[in-house]
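Hi P.,

Sorry for the delay on this. The queue was packed all week, but I finally got your sequence through. Input first:
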Amino acid sequence: MTDASPATPVVAAAAASPSRPHFEIVLVEPEIPNNTGNIGRTAAATGCRLHVVHPLGFSMDEKARRRAGLDYWHLVDCREHADWQAADEAVPGPGWLLTAGGGRPHWDVPFELGDRLIFGKESAGVGPAFQSAFEARHGADRVVSLPMAMVPGVRSLNLATAVAIVVYEGLRRLRTQGRLDPRIGVRPGSEGGSAGIG
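Then the structure:
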């Protein structure tokens, strides 16, 4: 059976909208400002909401954002949370926990509109205690990994890269369901240009 996605997807009544994001991207204790900045750009470009869970490895004040070159941050729907408990209460639903190893591959995940996509910090992920608690509450089938070649020394992908891969796979799924916000589309560009990439 082939994926019979329509060229122009029909948008259902329950499609995403400015007040209903495609996905809730949750970063648990991120450490590198440029990664969070890139993820913020991905969130803004894909109709997602970003959640940043403290403690952080950097400052989120305006001066720090300017220094990191985040001149588009005003376009990012970003919510900060004092800790994981606060984030867990603010963003409902089990969602999916992304880890560097174990769990099902991302392309087998039945993403749904508004799902939580939970990512740990760059140096250590969420840690075994967090993962165990998540699995006990939501089930081990909610743990997801990105398949990679078994190359010695290559343990994981960059956090911002991983988020983008998962979000776009999720958007592909929403598109086949007719639940993609109609504002999401390919920007026109000059021949040989890099529309949408920069």
